[in-house]
């Protein structure tokens, strides 16, 4: 109930500065003895009948934190207090890099969206790996990895391998980000030959650790491109698909920042992300699980994604507009929808609306 007042103050700040202050405040708060337990009690999610297993990992409920919020692995404990079933850290690059020049994040308040061109600003794999030595226990942590901006596309596989080797020991799963629109040329890794090289190398490197490997894809691919990506991913034994990243399109956006370069997230992405989810579900035919991301802000959105075939969802932009109670609101709302429909177990609805 207090968040609208706090949001008004935060929205007076540059979006990136507001984010950094939020992270610092949360980390300061949980350093106070007993505060983590208090926050977990306040933001307790619904879990009865909500648990699901994805690629061998147990999630207490289907709502996780998408990559992009905790880029550097420095707020995993704080986000764990807000009730997420899993947290995806990153995107993390092998070497530290500053990302694109500021300003590089823009609110679309009227549409509850966000445009960002962060450009993989990262503290680098070594720093993030060290932070995750003391990661939260009992909560699945994924690490989303990408290449450095100045690494030639022909050498991208070496960057992913380096990041995988350093970070995978600290992760429950690794997500390969080939879909950010803010690193020049990155989306060319969707092309079959490049993707085969990347997935083949990661599969060989993963033979010992056997970590689940997820592929995060773009919502802007053509039907033919999407077919090729999914076929290649399945051929190379990918553990699951994360659909989708941000979009370079601007569906329904009229805010002043509409012409800013970068990826669009939040509510305006809802329709496109759902369409991509349905396409991926049709192409995978149940062979791999799908985590749905993009435009999810209500319990009805979560319910619709699960019924369309997603095994779980991830959120980020909605938290900017709804606040720290988002996971509690989504999961308790989801529980109410399940009761309405006589559903006792979340797994019973996955894929029922294909």
Give your account of this protein's structure.
- By secondary structure, the chain is α/β, with parallel strands linked by helices.
- It has a single domain (3-348), classed as TIM Barrel (Alpha-Beta Barrel), CATH 3.20.20.
- The protein is 36% helix and 15% strand.
- The strands form three sheets. The protein has an eight-stranded parallel beta sheet. Strands 5-6-11 form a three-stranded antiparallel beta sheet, with no helix packed on it. It has a two-stranded antiparallel sheet with strand order 1-2.
- β12, α10 and β13 form a beta-alpha-beta unit.
- α7 packs parallel to α8 (223-235), α8 packs across α9 (270-284) and α10 crosses α12.
- The radius of gyration is 19 Å and the shape is globular.
- The protein starts with a helix and ends in a 14-residue tail after the last helix.
Quickly count the domains.
1
Q: Alpha-carbon distance between the termini?
A: 37 Å
CATH top level assignment: Alpha Beta
- Give the strand order, joined by hyphens, for the main sheet: 3-13-12-10-9-8-7-4
The overall pLDDT, averaged over residues, is 96
Helix and strand string, N-terminal first? HHHEEEHEEEHEHEHEHEEHEHEHH
Quickly give the structural class: alpha/beta
**Share in helix:** 25-40%
Radius of gyration computed on alpha carbons = 19 Å
* Major sheet characteristics: 8 strands, parallel
Note the quaternary state here.
Answer: single chain
Mind telling me the CATH superfamily name?
Answer: Aldolase class I
Number of strands: 13
């Amino acid at each position: 109930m207090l968040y609208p007042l706090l949001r008004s103050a935060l929205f007076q700040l540059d979006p990136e500065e507001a984010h950094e202050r939020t992270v610092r405040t949360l980390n300061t708060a949980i350093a106070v003895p007993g505060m983590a337990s208090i926050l977990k009690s306040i933001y307790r999610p619904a879990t009865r009948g909500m648990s699901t297993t994805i690629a061998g990992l147990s999630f207490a409920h289907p709502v996780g934190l998408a990559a992009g919020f905790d880029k550097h692995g420095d707020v995993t404990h704080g986000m764990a207090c807000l009730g997420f079933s899993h947290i995806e850290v990153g995107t993390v690059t092998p070497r530290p890099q500053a990302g694109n020049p500021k300003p590089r994040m823009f609110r679309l308040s009227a549409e509850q969206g966000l445009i960002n061109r962060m450009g993989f600003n990262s503290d680098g794999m070594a720093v993030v790996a060290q932070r995750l030595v003391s990661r939260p226990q009992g909560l699945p942590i994924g690490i989303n990895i990408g290449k450095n901006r100045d690494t030639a596309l022909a050498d991208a596989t070496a960057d992913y391998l380096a990041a995988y080797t350093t970070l995978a020991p600290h992760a429950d799963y690794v997500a390969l980000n080939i879909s950010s629109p803010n690193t020049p040329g990155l989306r060319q890794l969707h092309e079959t030959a490049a993707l085969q090289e990347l997935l083949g190398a990661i599969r060989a490197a993963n033979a010992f650790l056997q970590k689940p490997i997820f592929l995060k894809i773009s919502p802007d691919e053509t039907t033919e491109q999407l077919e090729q990506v999914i076929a290649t991913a399945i051929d190379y034994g990918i553990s699951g698909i994360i659909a989708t990243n941000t979009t370079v399109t601007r569906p329904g956006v009229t805010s002043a920042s509409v012409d800013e370069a970068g990826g669009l997230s939040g509510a305006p992405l809802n329709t496109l992300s759902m369409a991509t989810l349905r396409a991926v579900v049709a192409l995978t035919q149940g062979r791999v699980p799908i985590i749905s991301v993009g435009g999810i802000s209500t319990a009805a959105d979560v319910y619709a994604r699960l019924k369309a075939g997603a095994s779980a969802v991830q959120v980020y932009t909605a938290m900017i507009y709804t606040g720290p109670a988002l996971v509690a609101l989504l999961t308790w709302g989801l529980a109410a929808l399940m009761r309405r429909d006589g559903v006792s177990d979340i797994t019973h609805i996955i894929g029922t609306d294909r």
